[in-house]
Each structure stands twice: as structure tokens, then as C-alpha cells.
Amino acid sequence: MVGPTTLNSVVLIALAAAMAPLLAQAFGRWISIPSTVIEIVLGIVIGPAALGIAHKDDFVNTLSNFGLVLLFFLAGYEVDFTRIKGGPLTRAASSWAVSLVLGLAIGALLALMVGSGAAGGFTIGLALTTTALGAILPILRDAGTLPTPLGAQTMAVGAVGEFAPLVAVAVLLSGRAPLRSIVVLGVFALIAVGAAILAVRPMPPRMSRAITVTLGTSGQFAVRLIVLVVLALVWLATRLDLDVILGAFAAGITIRLLLNSTGEREIETIESKIDGLAFGLFIPFFFVVTGIGFDLRALVSSASAIALVPIGLVAFMVVRGLPVGFAFRRHLPAPELKALRLYAATELPLVVVITGIGVDNDWLTAATAAGLVGAAMLSVLLYPLLALRSTAPSSVTATATVVP
Fold first, then answer.
1. Are 397 and 146 within 8 A, CB to CB?
2. Spatial distance between the Cα atoms of 152 and 158, rounded to a whole number of angstroms
3. Which of 119, 145, 182, 259 is the Cys-Cys partner for 140 at CB 3.0 to 4.6 Å?
4. Phi and psi at residue 30, to the nearest 5°
């Protein structure tokens, strides 16, 4: 049974989630603030750092983790390999390799600044190489950018910026020997590829008919099937001692391949239902709980952690934005290239995850983690806003394009 204290927190989190889009709309008269940022800020307000009226416990953490799972599921689902294969994906991968080198170098310097050891420097460096594809996808979708060449390039950069750090976390931060981690990851990859191959095959007529017939009934077979695939791959990832978000990302890719054989109208209906489930409940729950767990007191008590907020914001741009800008410099006009750099430097969910691993293993202090997460929250607030302003409506062509 859920106790009254837990229920109080759940209701307050739901209240914050409901208020966030209203506040975003109100602030939109002067400045466009992503709803995710407002959700985090409201979480800080109701959490222990301020009012202290909402708290995390096992039940709240479970709901929050499911929100994180759905965030990465949708990130994987939005990756359209027919649009990003070839040049965009190659450039995204090569730019991430440069980001990794830069990130580890800057991470080592920042570790010296905050008094962390080599493991802390590696953790900071890895966190700097991420891109918050799940956080910027709603912004790209609402702005009508996803079907454009800029949308395809951003999708490629974001997919690599989330998947590559996840693999690095699985191999290097899991606590296992690297060779054993690679073997475990390989087993998971084989199973995930097998699921993807099955998904590409034509859907059995009975299954296709069940999806169509139950879309408007209480059966909701399509939604239940998607939830099953997500939970199955997340369960597999946990059984192999991998992070759940790796399973969620793989599930998103698998479901996209599975639905390719479904009619366009059915896909639109299914997507609207999944969006309602994810963005209506679980994803905002994750961001509000992220705010509740944000250690503001540890941040303000440490001068080096406070300094890490603006330094981290700049480091995101140096580590992610500059290599991406160089790799794509001949493939986008100047305003869209600037936007791509800004989107690439937008980070948050994986920064929360990676710094959390660092704190759990005593590689990072809570104050250092709070400084990096604070920088990531600022990146979600500032960089997409600057990216949207850099691309005039006339410069965005609203047609789906395979980018060379």
C-alpha cells in the first residue's frame, strides 16, 4: 500500500507537472522556456532544498525511473535510420570520438579543480560527451524542425550522443572487467538485433488486424505490445547488469521498425497514445523528481561546485558543439549549423545518470554532481532557445529529407 506521505508527494509532483506547461505558456510572452526546465525548478521548490513538502522514496523513484525509460524509448523511436544513415551518422560518430578526447581532457582539469581523483575526472569527462536527444526532441517536434535537414542532422548527432556514452558507461563504469563488460554488451546487442530483425519482417495479418481493431477500444493491443517490448528489453538489460536506458533505447528502435509495416493513420494514432502516456505522466514525473533530488544545499555550500555551473555550460559547448560544428560545416547553412552546435551541447538526462553513478561510487561529491547537473539544466534552458532564434522560419524547409 502507498502511504499518505508518499501519496502527498505524488499529488504534489502531479500538480507541478500540470502547472509546468501553463507557466511555460505564460512566460512565453517574454521568453520561451522549455517545460522540462520549469518541471525541474518546481521540483526544487517543493523538494527538500526549499519547501520540503515532497520527498523521494521507493515508489516515487520507481515512477521516475519509468519516466526516464520512456524518455529514452522515445529517443530511440525517433531515430529514423533511413534519413540519417551514411553521411550524417558517420559525421556524428566521428565528431563524438573527438568529443570523447576533449571531454576526458577537460574532465581531468575539472577534477583537479573540484578535488576529485582520476575516476572522478573520467566520470566528468564522459558526462560532458552526452547530448540530450530525449529532451530536445519535443522542442524540435513543436518547432516543425524534425522533418527538415537540420532535424535529420540533429537526430544523428543526438542518437550518437546518447547511445555512445551509454555503451561507454556499460563498459567502463559498470564495475566489471572491461572484457567481461564487452561480452555482456555483445550478448545484449545480439538479442536486440534479433528483436529488430523480427520487427522488420512483415507483421502477421492477425496481429495487424488486432492493432487496427483495438485502437479505439479498451483492448489497446498496440499500446500493450509496446509496453511489453519496452519492459522486456529493460528487464533483459537489468538481468545483464546494464543500465535500463540502454534497453529502453533499443526498444524504441525496435518498435519503430515493427510499426513500419502498419498504416500511416494507425501509426499516427499509436504515436499520439504513447505521447499522451509518456509526456502526460511519466516523463514530467521524471523531471520533477530530478528537481526534488537536486542537492541545492551541497551546491551553494561549495565555491568550486558553484563555479562548475558556468564552466560546465561552456565545457558542453567546447566538448560537443565545436566538434559537431566542424564535422557538419559543409552540410548546413550558417544559421542551421549554429543551431546544430547548440542542440548538440544541450545535455541533461545522462548527466544526471552518469554523475549519480559517480556519487554512488564515491568518485564525485554530491556538490560536484549538483554543479554539473545545474550546468546541464542551464543548457536545456539556454541552448535550444538560442538555436530556435538562430533559425529564421524562412531558413527551415518543412519537407522530410534524406541528408547526404
1. no
2. 10
3. 145
4. -115, -40
pLDDT tens, position by position, 110-125: 999 998 899 999 999 9
For residue 251, the model assigns a pLDDT of: 92
Torsion of CA 153, 156, 160, 161, to 10 degrees: 40
Residue 281 cell numbers, joined:
505522466
Q: Which has the closest alpha carbon to 344: 157, 70, 74, 97? A: 157
What residues contact residue 22 under an 8 Å CB cut-off, 6+ apart? none
**CB neighbour list of residue 174: distance below 8 Å, 6 or more residues apart:** 181, 241, 242
> How does DSSP classify residue 394?
G
Task: Name the residue with cell 501509426.
Answer: 267
Supply the pLDDT for residue 404.
Answer: 56
DSSP state of 204: P
Angle, in degrees to the nearest 10, between helices 58-78 and 149-172 = 130
Contact (Cβ atoms closer than 8 angstroms) between residue 376 and residue 319: no
Distances (CA, A) of 80 to 20, 170, 254, 314: 30, 24, 11, 30
Total-model pTM: 0.86
| Cβ atoms 199, 225 nearer than 8 A | no
List the domain boundaries for the chain: 70-393
What single-letter amino acid sits at 397?
A: T
Which CATH topology does 70-393 take?
Answer: Na+/H+ antiporter like fold (1.20.1530)
Query: What per-residue string of b and e applies to 137-165 under the rule 16 or more CB within 10 Å gives b?
Result: bbbbeebebbbbbbbbbbbbbbbbbbbbb
Check: CB of residue 317 under 8 Å from CB of residue 341. Answer: yes
311 Cβ neighbours under 8 A, 6+ residues apart: 110, 113, 375
Q: What is the CA radius of gyration of the chain?
A: 20
Q: How far apart are CA 207 and CA 193, in angstroms?
A: 21
